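Final report, Chapter 2: Outcomes

The project's central promise was a pipeline that accepts a single protein chain and returns its three-dimensional structure in a standardized token representation, suitable for archiving and comparison. That pipeline is now operational. To close this chapter, we reproduce one record exactly as it appears in the project archive, with the input sequence first and the structure output second.
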Amino acid sequence: MNLKDRELKKVIEVLSLIFTFEIVISFILSTYKPPYQDLLIKLDYISIMFFTFEFIYNFYYEENKVKFFKDIYNIVDAIVVIAFLLYSLQIFYSKAFLGLRVINLLRILVLLRVIKLRKSDENPALINFLTLLTICFISSCLIWVAESDVNPAINNFFDAFYFTTISITTVGYGDITPKTDAGKLIIIFSVLFFISGLITSLQKALKGD
């Protein structure tokens, strides 16, 4: 890869960060049912167009194509691209946007890219915080999709984030409880994932000693 390509790659990485946060902000705002919902979806559409370009670009410059698809984050990107293609076909044929629930699931898939953006190992405490924050954030998104229509205690993203964080950290005030089986499963897997992460970190620390 020559100097020009390396500079282009840096630009792509910066734009990837910007568009990823556009998706994050878009999802949060959408939970408050704003009157500009269509505008948010169109901005998401632009972001996902960029992610599709980035995926194709990275795949093109990867010498080992098999290794490329062994990376879990590249698989996530591939799913987003496929979803984007289906999204585009629906717009082309029906002249209408997908349902809001499907749009939110697509947004959540893109949010997994936040994990991919964490590359620094210089500050373990910061990495642990960002990891926990990411788990809580994605779990909150899933909880909102599963519970918002049936749970009167979860009206927006903040309610979902509060409930998820309290549950994952095992504080459990009990003021909000899941009403659906999907919501219960999301919390179960989130808590188990969090606990397994703590055990793994403890084992690494013991080995380090």
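Archive annotation: Residues 3-30 form the longest helix (28 residues).
This record, like all others produced under the grant, will remain available to the consortium after the project formally closes.
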